[in-house]
């Protein structure tokens, strides 16, 4: 109690007084007026080394005994501070840490770790190569990973117990190898590798890989085994994995369709639609009912397909409800992100399935396709796909077009004139196309204007408008419409093709060539584009390039007579008659009624005297069938002057003169009668000589005969001569001059005369042959196609 001091009762001071008192040294408000402080700041006076103070706990000493400073050790204070050592809480005075112990790379454990790392890297590289499309490299990496993994297993068995083997690594290596075999269509190796995985009991859940084996058997068209493995996989997958079970059942249903077992396929798809309905299963169910011809079930399946939920957000989500800039930025960011793209793809796929199913079942579910389309339209209008109803109506009009019922098609399309702008533009585009095909350019232009006004960004409408302007001869304005169509849709091949034709009509050949070459990069095997490129080069007087592009054209359409004759024409202009003959003759084989080709071949035969009479007569016989008698008569007269002993030519001349009513008929008939008798006598002598009657006598008679000779019928005696060999005529002796072989000029034509053209037929007196314009080959495609279905 000696040390206890009680506060006096009279002391009325505040118990909390004094807490606001502080040392004036810490008064920072007066530092600006402190001369010593300002001098220390401006000079090195304030940067002198700090004075080391000895911090002593005021409670460390009691009766001369030092108390342990445990309270401040955590802050780095120790007893050494009392002995004058420097304050070093981080231990920097001890110097740098000793170097790390070097790894022993020769140890077995380190080798195993490095090898395992290399195997993982090879598996990753194989997967990356597969995703990049380099399947061969992916397979090589997978094989290398398999080899190294087997080495790794052997090393682990030597160092550790078998229980320490990395099964996950082995599983991933084998699975990747099997997948790469399958991707490279090495199905036998893939099945063997999958069997290794499935039969290994140490791999958990390996049974589900039988789905992959079933897929391989499906690709091999081994449908029975595919179904077997799908069902085995289905048995090994627990019911909690509902989504995977549904996908396997869908594969089973598709396999049943491929085998024609539609009732089993229907059972699979009906189960899927009752458990977890989806678009693919609904569409396949419609196909199965269509195959068995069940109308009522087709309707019910179509309604089920319509009712499948899309599970996507509405478009209103991407419309800003206010002018909040932050909200607008967020909406702009998500408007075209990956999720939005996925939603668009799902919606497009749903619309495709519904439209295809409607076009498939509409003609069969009712008495007529129109009634069937009406039923589908009503069902679609009552669903979430209301906008598809108008597309179905347009498809109904297109079906009328396929059936060549143009009036009904026009009536159906005219119903859309009061619809919204998109549908109105589509219908007006098709109407413009129809009227363009019927050469009603005024109506076509009117509906093209309606389509453009309804949707200025419709490339098909702009193309059709350009076509109507092109038909009226305003090529500059047509080019402007085609350019606008290309600005709206750079992939509009119709507009690009038409603008090339327009530039060609304007004689702007370089620009036309650029258009067609661009189009060739898009449509590599388009015959029209190849022809136009060759034609432009021909107009630019570059026959070598024209020939090169025409050669590409006939590789695409080898039976096109127009392209073959054009090649013959170009080779002829270059002076290469043999190549020209080859292509002209090929053109004649595919289209024997082309007069220009016939004229060239006839001139070539006459100039070279290098032909077979029968082929020559056959080449020129089309002149008779097309009614061009005068041309045929002149041609055969020319042949007769060069080869007066040709019987076939005389027969044609007699027939022509008889049909036309010329007086020359008697002259040609007399010559024909004489040649026929000479031929008959010659045949009798040859026959008698073969019988051996009077061999020496026959020789004497032959020697006593006149010295006159005649040229035998090449068509009969030289038909086996090779092509390109000059024909040599065999000479035969005529009978004696005193033998009767001439006929009176007044005698009628012998009744034994055989018409080389067959029985008399009624032939037209004239026949018009439409000349093929240089652009007729491709201008028929000038009109835009119907809208995509």
UniProtKB/TrEMBL annotation:
Residues 762-773 have a biased composition (Basic and acidic residues). Its main location: other. The keyword Repeat applies. Residues 1-22, 87-108, 683-706, 733-789 are annotated as: Disordered. TPR repeats lie at residues 207-240, 246-279, 459-492, 493-526, 527-560, 561-594. Residues 774-789 have a biased composition (Acidic residues). One of its GO terms (cellular component) is intraciliary transport particle B. InterPro entries: TPR-like_helical_dom_sf (IPR011990), TPR_rpt (IPR019734). It is found in: Cell projection, Cilium, Flagellum; Cytoplasm, Cytoskeleton, Cilium basal body; Cytoplasm, Cytoskeleton, Microtubule organizing center, Centrosome, Centriole. GO terms for biological process: inner ear receptor cell stereocilium organization; intraciliary transport; kidney development; non-motile cilium assembly; regulation of cilium assembly. Keywords: Cell projection, Cilium, Cilium biogenesis/degradation, Cytoplasm, Cytoskeleton, Flagellum, Repeat, TPR repeat. GO terms for molecular function: kinesin binding. Component of the IFT complex B, at least composed of IFT20, IFT22, IFT25, IFT27, IFT46, IFT52, TRAF3IP1/IFT54, IFT57, IFT74, IFT80, IFT81, and IFT88. Interacts with IFT20, IFT22, IFT25, IFT27, IFT52, TRAF3IP1, IFT74, IFT80 and IFT81. Interacts with IFT172. Interacts with IFT57. Interacts with IFT46. Interacts with IFT70B. Interacts with C2CD3. Interacts with ENTR1 (via N-terminus). Interacts with LRRC56. Interacts with DZIP1. Interacts with CCDC38. Interacts with CCDC146. Interacts with CFAP53. Positively regulates primary cilium biogenesis. Also involved in autophagy since it is required for trafficking of ATG16L and the expansion of the autophagic compartment. This is Intraflagellar transport protein 88 homolog. The lineage of its organism: Eukaryota, Metazoa, Chordata, Craniata, Vertebrata.
């Amino acid at each position: 109690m000696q040390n206890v001091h009680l506060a006096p009762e009279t002391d009325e001071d505040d118990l909390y007084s004094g807490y606001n008192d502080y040392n004036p040294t810490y008064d920072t408000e007066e530092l600006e007026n402190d001369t010593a402080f300002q001098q220390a700041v401006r000079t090195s006076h304030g940067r002198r080394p700090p004075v080391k103070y000895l911090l002593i706990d005021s409670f460390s000493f009691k009766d001369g005994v030092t108390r342990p400073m445990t309270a401040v050790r955590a802050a780095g204070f120790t007893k050494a501070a009392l002995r004058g050592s420097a304050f070093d809480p981080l231990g920097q005075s001890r110097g740098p840490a000793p170097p790390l112990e070097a790894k022993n790379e020769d140890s077995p454990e380190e080798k195993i770790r490095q090898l395992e790392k290399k195997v993982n890297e090879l598996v990753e590289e194989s997967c990356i190569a597969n995703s990049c499309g380099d399947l061969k490299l992916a397979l090589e990496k997978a094989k290398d990973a398999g080899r190294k993994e087997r080495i790794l297993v052997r090393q682990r068995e030597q160092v550790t117990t078998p229980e320490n083997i990395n099964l996950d690594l082995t599983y991933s290596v084998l699975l990747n190898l099997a997948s790469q075999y399958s991707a490279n269509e090495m199905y036998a190796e893939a099945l063997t590798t999958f069997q290794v995985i499935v039969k290994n009991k140490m791999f958990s859940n390996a049974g589900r890989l039988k789905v992959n084996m079933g897929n391989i058997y499906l690709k091999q068209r081994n449908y029975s085994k595919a179904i077997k493995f799908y069902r085995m996989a289905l048995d090994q997958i627990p019911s909690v994995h509902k989504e995977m079970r549904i996908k396997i059942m869908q594969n089973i249903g598709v396999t049943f369709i491929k085998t024609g077992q539609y009732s089993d396929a229907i059972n699979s798809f009906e189960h899927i639609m009752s458990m977890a309905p989806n678009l693919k299963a609904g569409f396949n169910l419609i196909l199965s009912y269509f195959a068995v011809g069940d109308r009522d079930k087709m309707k019910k399946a179509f309604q089920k397909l319509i009712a499948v939920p899309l599970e996507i957000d509405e478009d209103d989500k991407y419309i800003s409800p206010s002018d909040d800039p932050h909200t607008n930025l967020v909406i702009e960011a998500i408007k075209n992100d990956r999720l939005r793209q996925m939603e668009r793809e799902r919606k497009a796929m749903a619309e495709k399935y519904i439209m295809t199913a409607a076009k498939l079942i509409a003609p069969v579910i009712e008495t007529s396709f129109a009634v069937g389309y009406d039923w589908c339209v009503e069902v679609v209008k009552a669903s979430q796909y209301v906008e598809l109803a108008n597309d179905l109506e347009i498809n109904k009009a297109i079906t009328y077009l396929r059936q060549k019922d143009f009036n009904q098609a026009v009536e159906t399309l005219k119903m859309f004139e009061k619809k919204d702008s998109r549908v109105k533009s589509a219908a007006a585009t098709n109407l413009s196309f129809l009227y363009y095909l019927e050469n009603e350019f005024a109506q076509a232009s009117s509906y093209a204007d309606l389509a453009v006004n309804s949707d200025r960004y419709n490339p098909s409408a702009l193309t059709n408008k350009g076509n109507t302007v092109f038909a009226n001869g305003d090529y500059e304005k047509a080019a402007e419409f085609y350019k606008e169509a290309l600005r709206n849709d750079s992939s509009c091949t119709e507009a690009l093709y038409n603008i090339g034709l327009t530039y060609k009509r304007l004689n702007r050949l370089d620009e036309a060539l650029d258009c067609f070459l661009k189009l060739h990069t898009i449509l590599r095997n388009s015959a029209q584009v190849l022809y136009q490129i060759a034609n432009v080069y021909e107009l630019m007087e570059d026959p070598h390039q024209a020939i090169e592009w025409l050669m590409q054209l006939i590789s695409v359409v080898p039976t096109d007579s127009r392209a073959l004759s054009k090649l013959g024409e170009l080779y002829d202009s270059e002076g290469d008659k043999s190549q020209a003959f080859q292509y002209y003759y090929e053109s004649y084989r595919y289209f024997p009624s082309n007069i220009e080709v016939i004229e060239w071949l006839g001139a070539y035969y006459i100039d070279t005297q290098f032909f077979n009479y029968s082929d020559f007569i056959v080449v020129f016989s089309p002149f008779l069938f097309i009614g061009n008698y005068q041309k045929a008569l002149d041609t055969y007269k020319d042949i007769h002057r060069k080869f007066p002993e040709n019987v076939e030519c005389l027969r044609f001349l007699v027939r022509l003169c008889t049909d036309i009513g010329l007086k020359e008929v008697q002259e040609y008939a007399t010559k024909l009668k004489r040649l026929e008798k000479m031929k008959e006598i010659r045949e009798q002598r040859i026959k008698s000589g073969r019988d051996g009657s009077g061999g020496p006598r026959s020789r004497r008679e032959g020697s006593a005969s006149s010295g006159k000779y005649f040229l035998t019928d090449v068509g009969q005696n030289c038909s086996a001569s090779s092509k390109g060999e000059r024909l040599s005529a065999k000479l035969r002796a005529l009978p004696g001059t005193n033998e009767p072989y001439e006929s009176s000029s007044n005698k009628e034509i012998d009744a034994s005369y055989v018409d080389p053209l067959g029985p008399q037929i009624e032939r037209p007196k004239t026949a018009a042959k439409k000349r093929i314009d240089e652009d007729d080959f491709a201008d028929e495609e000038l009109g835009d196609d119907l809208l995509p279905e």
